[in-house]
Amino acid sequence: MNIIKRRYLYFAISLLVIIPGILALIFWGLSLGIDFTGGSLLEVRFESGNPPSITEVANLYAEYSTPELDISDPIVQPLPPDSLSIRSREMDDATKSEVVTALQERFGSGKNVIILNFTQVSPAVGQEVARAATVAVVMAALAILIYIWFAFRKVNHAFRYGTAAIIAMLHDVLVVVGVEAIFGHFLGWQVDSLFLTALLTVIGFSVHDTIVVFDRIRENSNIYRRVDYETVVNHSIVQTLDRSINTQLTVMITLLALALFGGTSIRHFVIILLIGVFSGTYSSIFNAPPILTVWENKEWRTWFRRKPVAV
Amino acid sequence: MTRRPYLSLVIILLLVALASWVDLSKQITIVNPLNGKTLVDRKVDIRLGLDLRGGLQVLLEADLPANATVNSNDLTTTRQILENRANGLGVSEVVMQSAPPNRIVAEFPGIQNSDEVVKALQQTGLLEFVDLGDERLAVGTAIQTDYGTANAVPDGIVTLSPTNTASPIPSATDTVPAPTEAAAATSQETPAATEAPAAPTIYHTMMTGASLSSVNVEVSQQVGSSGYVIAFTLKSDATTMFSDYTGSHVGKILAIVLDKHIISAPSINSQIDKGTGIIEGNFTQDSANALAIQLRYGSLPVPVKVVESRSVGATLGEESVRRSLIAGIIGLSVVILFMLLYYRLPGFIADLALIVYALLSLMLFKLIPVVLTLPGIAGFILSIGMAVDANILIFERLKEELRAGRTLRQAIDLGWARAWPSIRDSNSSTLITCLILFIFGNTFGASMVKGFSVTLAIGVLVSLFTAIIVTRTFLHVVLDRIKFAEHPRWFGI
């Protein structure tokens, strides 16, 4: 099995996923949840099994909206089979009670309307959380770079290992964020603190995987001193392949169980983790070690040169 | 350790026994057999977060001008007062945490209607008139009262036991000079109760601040007094009750308690039957004013406002618990099956180690205690996958060494030694992430994020322990006598 030989194919596959994600980010952006923007989120279940339509809810909200407390234009999403999630600007407790009573009276059809959850965040807190979230992601990346640098300090070119691991990690971050942007556009997914948690976990997991492969390269470089670097790297990947796949399988089994049977409120979170874990394993096999080879051979010198034409 | 796998085995079995005991019990008690003293007596129960049991979380922020800073002592005091108020509502297991510099996170399990709670928190202090009997407690003492509890009397109504009403003492004046803490001589002869039991006394609240109609500071009419008194008027519906009560409790102490702390403890000199009275003491104008304001409005060192609130209905919580449990069981079973099929005998050993891992983690969750949230459970289930990873790393190495022709005993030690750097480095990076998530979650009262990082970190640490000690010991105990050459299939080779 020669994975290193086809490295540019694997880079291309990564780009195939990442580029649409980046385009989605540029054109649609991420839709931020109320954790970061501030506002109210009301999730209600209609025991009758007949939730009102989106326009009906929007009209009801518009009725209770005042110039000081503008809650018109709520974003309403059905949560099948019988619930709704309604997002609006921040409202006060009194308005919330009135809205829920109105929902009960008009659309309850004689059955109960149950508040599943109600969240409100002031815009100031939201902004602060968003800022801290960015800091958290950057801090995590830096801390891990320093750690890898330290762990591989005795190997030649320790800095390369750290950088390659960070590039693989950024790959996973881009995949996850890109997918979130695409799903956000089509399915209405929103970036909340749980998404952030998933992202940070993916960062941890991605590096976890990469380190296992690098560790093998570190060990093999000492054993096979005469063999060329490319072969050593490829050999290391093949040796750790069983482990990479099996570990990924077990983690994905547990996550899949959560996604299929766990509560709806964490489904978004679990699916992001699933995608991230898959991407993490992919990048630790097909991106991070090939990057080391590219670096070792300084291949970028030939990237923009025309290929010699065969005569 | 490799020399003595049986010693490690005994230690592991003891740990497992301990873990099973803690996991299965709701209360653990350890008594010292020598002197019969109770060493440990703790409730160990799995604590569910608000998202799983339903409830309300509120993030409160100091409502001050932007440039003002909050003194950390003030924040702590505010938190304590709010906590007392919340407990006064009859809400159980309220958790309040200061989130410096200027926030307080409050959690109310089981509460659905946020409006009431939030109003109660922001409103004035809870003022109670508490019957201390003959006990004279110092100002500032924290006490427990029966207000808001199951056997409490409704606001402003007092039930007097027949024995108390037997000897009503007539009184002439309607403004009663009540000697306060400084001038008290009448009830000093009963400083008993030194043999008081450890359990705190719960005092009876005979009236709350809701029964006061007005409170004023007045200059004392009495010669020789320090100058200021506080005059209060009762609402008409409380007058008769107060009259009966004071009539039957002359000489007893009626403490004025704000948010469960005694702010004044005058004794009743005579019956107050006209609905007005005065509190006397060594007041300066300032201290009298301060007390009057407390009586009128209660007090918070720092005013607070709600900046974030999250409530989860109990239905959603129950559903989540049930579903996570199912997901966890299915996930764990499939992983166990996978390990068994793929790695055969070592896989079976890994499965045993996985069960030890689950038992130990659960014990830690209960002992620390960790509040389990939905993402917390997800973190734990995710860490099952990571726990298996350490074993997979070891087994892959084990296989390699076996293929290279080593004996089983050598292969186990070599495989373990070679897998260790990978296990260490990879888990360290996960722990670093956990730490950063924890700090982030802690700053914003994002208990979901915090819960996730805590359970994942515990999971990683316990999985390191099982990988280092448990799997290795089991491998040695089970495999040292097996001749690999006779049973290669047991190892999937």
Structure description:
The complex is a heterodimer of chains A (311) and B (493). Chain A is an alpha+beta fold and 311 residues long. Chain A has two domains: 7-33 and 125-300, Up-down Bundle (Multidrug efflux transporter AcrB transmembrane fold); 39-121, Alpha-Beta Plaits. Chain A has helices spanning 7-27, 34-37, 54-64, 93-107, 123-151, 158-187, 193-223, 229-261, 267-297, 300-303, and strands at residues 39-46, 75-79, 83-88, 113-121. The longest helix of chain A has 33 residues, at 229-261. Chain B is an alpha+beta fold. Chain B folds into three domains: 5-46 and 313-491, Up-down Bundle (Multidrug efflux transporter AcrB transmembrane fold); 55-119 and 305-310, Alpha-Beta Plaits (2-Layer Sandwich), CATH 3.30.70.3400; 127-299, Gyrase A, domain 2. In chain B, strand 8 (144-145), helix 5 and strand 9 (202-208) form a beta-alpha-beta unit. In chain B, helix 10 packs antiparallel against helix 11 (447-479). Chain B is elongated. Mean pLDDT of chain B is 75; it is low at 150-197.
Question: Could you provide a short overview of the structure?
Answer:
The complex is a heterodimer of chains A (311) and B (493). Chain A is of the alpha+beta class.
Q: Which ranges of chain B are low-confidence, i.e. pLDDT below 50, for 5 or more consecutive residues?
A: 150-197
What is the typical, i.e. mean, pLDDT of chain A? Answer: 85
Oligomer: heterodimer
**What number of structural domains do the residues of chain A give?**
2
Rg for CA atoms of chain A: 25 Å
Beta-strand residue fraction of chain A? 5-15%
Principal-axes geometry of chain A comes out as elongated
Instruction: Walk across the major sheet of chain A and give the strand order.
Output: 2-3-1-4
Which overall shape of chain B is indicated by the principal axes computed on the Cα atoms? elongated
Q: Show the largest interface.
A: A-B, 72 and 70 residues
Number of helices of chain A: 10
Q: Which stretches of chain A are poorly predicted, pLDDT < 50 over at least 5 residues?
A: none
List the strand order in the largest sheet of chain B: 8-9-7-12-13
CATH superfamily of the largest domain in chain B: Multidrug efflux transporter AcrB transmembrane domain
